[in-house]
Write a structure and sequence with these properties.
This protein folds into 3 domains: about 80 residues; about 90 residues, Orthogonal Bundle (DNA polymerase, domain 1), CATH 1.10.150; about 200 residues, Orthogonal Bundle (hpI Integrase, Chain A), CATH 1.10.443.10. About 50% of the residues lie in helices and about 10% in strands. It has 14 helices and 8 strands. The strands form 2 sheets. Strands 1-2-3-4-5 form a 5-stranded antiparallel beta sheet. Strands 6-7-8 form a 3-stranded antiparallel beta sheet. The chain is elongated.
């Protein structure tokens, strides 16, 4: 049996072997990310260019026996494919990709989402289901597929849910073509409702104090404007922006709103996460964000097309957010706020979480619909991830819990 080494990432084959007496196209391989041997084979004229599967065997000899049986099954499937190829999962996955292309052209789907779905299909879903007849995809097959993704790669519940949704969308194509009468029941992925990592009011003051210290005593080995990062943190907490939504924000996207002697900002988010769905894309800030904007941000760069933050960094697609994210991590470490009380790591998203939590605490959670509209999210998300763990801290609730001496009895 021939063998050779191949370098790459944790999910690339690190050791490949052929089986004596079988075509070289049939190979066993292992990956650093898994303890099991995998088998794969190139099938010319088959349902896809290549198919692979975990043998669930750690011992090589056991993996060889599995591979031989698997090879025979795949040859039979190849013959069947000639008859049923027009109704394979891969065929409808291709139709789904074409549907997504049209949605991208119409502006109903982002290119990033299309790319993410394509990668999941190519790397994971098609190798598992590509050559199967679309009608054979059922709850058990998808559940076993999800279980393997979880056990082999430790994917988060949110990512596993994306795979289930992707399979459902491909099945939807077959339902539209009336190849299957309906979409079968598919596994439900339960997400743990952990509180989102945010900064309490005390921690927020601690964060700003740490940023002022870095501003006034900048590290000698880091070239970065921590004074601008300070304004960035304040602005984000008072505008409800997501970390992905500030990098393309320019002065032309900001309008001043004066009402009852108070100045606020109306922000038209140019790349809002909700831009592909119906709803309001404008967000109103607090008066503190307006003060920071007019007193400090505009003094740095006031051109209509200037970016609000770190305008000198011209790569706005990825580098600017990566750079600021790294500096924010340094700030959290400097301020002693790497993790929250639940052990969850603070990231730039913690600023948005803090903005939502502060507003819920301030209002007692009385107007979640208005907050959801302004923050471009849903009341369901606010209730599930914010309101549930903030309720015990609200003044009306704490007052209800105050115990008097009457309950304790008199002495």
């Amino acid at each position: 049996m021939a063998a050779y080494k191949k370098s790459g990432s944790r999910h690339n084959p690190s050791e490949l072997r052929t089986i004596q007496g079988y075509p070289d196209a049939l190979k066993l391989f292992r990956m650093p990310a898994s303890k099991y041997w995998y088998v794969r084979m190139y099938l010319k004229g088959g349902p896809s260019s290549g198919v692979k599967q975990s043998t669930r065997c750690e011992n090589f000899k056991d993996a060889v026996e599995f591979a031989k049986d698997w090879y025979e099954v795949k040859l039979l499937e190849k013959r069947e494919h000639r008859l049923r190829g027009a109704e394979s999962f891969e065929v409808f996955a291709s139709k789904f990709s074409a549907t997504q292309e049209r949605e991208v052209r119409r502006g109903d789907l982002s290119k990033k989402q299309k790319s993410n779905d394509t990668n999941k299909l190519k790397n994971d879903v098609l190798p598992a289901f590509g050559d199967m007849h679309i009608s054979k995809i059922d709850y058990t097959l998808v559940d076993e597929f999800i279980d393997e993704l979880k056990s082999e790669r430790g994917l988060a519940a949110s990512t596993l849910k994306q795979y289930v949704v992707l399979v459902r969308k491909v099945l939807k194509e077959a339902e539209r073509d009336r190849v299957i009468p309906h979409i079968p029941s598919l596994p439900t992925i339960k997400r743990t409702k952990n509180p989102r990592p945010w900064f309490s009011p005390e921690e927020y003051r601690q964060l700003l104090a740490g940023c002022r210290d870095l501003r006034d005593n900048p590290p000698k080995d880091i070239t970065f404007d921590f004074g601008e990062l300070y304004d960035f943190c304040v602005f984000m907490v008072h505008t409800f922006l997501r970390p992905s939504e500030w990098k393309f924000l320019q002065n032309k996207h900001i309008k001043r709103l004066d009402a009852e002697g108070v100045s606020q900002l109306v922000i038209t988010v140019p790349n809002a996460k909700t831009s592909m769905s119906k709803g309001n894309l404008d967000s109103t800030s607090t008066e503190i964000a307006a003060d920071v904007y007019f007193s400090r941000i505009l003094k740095r760069h006031d051109g209509r097309n200037d970016y609000l933050f770190f305008n000198e960094i011209r790569d706005r697609e990825s580098y600017v957010s990566d750079r600021v994210s790294r500096m924010f991590s340094i700030l959290c470490e400097h301020a002693g706020l790497v993790e929250d009380t639940y052990g969850q790591k603070h990231t730039m998203y913690s600023l948005r979480h803090s903005a939502l939590c502060f507003q819920i605490l301030k209002t007692g959670g009385t107007d979640l619909f208005g907050l959801a509209q302004n923050a471009r999210t849903s009341t369901e998300m606010l209730e599930k991830f914010y309101l549930s763990h903030l309720t015990p801290q609200m003044p009306v609730f704490t007052r209800q819990l105050r115990t008097t001496r009457v309950l304790e009895g008199s002495e």
